[in-house]
Amino acid sequence: MPFIALQQSTGKRIDITTIESPRAELRAADMVCPVCGSPMLVKAGLINRPHFAHKPGREDCPYAAYSAGETQEHREAKELIRSHLGE
Predict the structure, then answer these.
(1) Quick one: residue 38, left, alpha or beta (phi over 0 = left, psi -120 to 50 = alpha)?
(2) Is 3 helix (H, G, I), strand (E, B) or coil?
(3) Secondary structure (3-state) at 56
(4) How far is CA 12 from CA 7, 16, 65, in A?
(5) What pTM value is reported for the model?
(6) End-to-end CA gap in the chain
(7) What is d(CA 56, CA 15) in angstroms, rounded to the nearest whole number?
(8) Rounded to whole angstroms, how far apart are CA atoms 67 and 70?
(9) How many C-beta atoms surround the C-beta of residue 67 within 10 A?
(10) Are 2 and 67 in contact (CB under 8 A)?
(11) Distance CA 40, CA 55 (A)
């Protein structure tokens, strides 16, 4: 579950975990994968944590599978480290 995408219009890295209301604040049409440049979906529902996802058919991108095998604990540990580093 990728948390980073590039905003195509500005080239800025977007960390979805720092955005209070991703669906309201981000335009999915402006989000692209930082690795392969393909369009990303904004996933921000009630069950899973907000994240980005490749559109179907881009499973070949290394970023698509980057965190597929991570446990919830692993993702939480990465979030803890990120918050302590101040990024």
Answers:
(1) beta
(2) coil
(3) coil
(4) 5, 12, 22
(5) 0.70
(6) 18
(7) 21
(8) 5
(9) 15
(10) yes
(11) 6
**Is-contact 1 53, C-beta < 8 A?**
yes
Which has the closest alpha carbon to 36: 68, 66, 63?
A: 63
pLDDT tens-digit profile of 47-69? 778 989 888 876 778 777 665 66
Q: How far apart are CA 23 and CA 83, in angstroms?
A: 22
Written as one string, the DSSP assignment of 7-47 is ETTTTEEEEGGG-S-HHHH--GGGEE-TTT--BEEEE--SS
Here the tokens at position 83 are: 């918050």
Tokens of 64: 């698509």
pLDDT of the residue at 28:
83
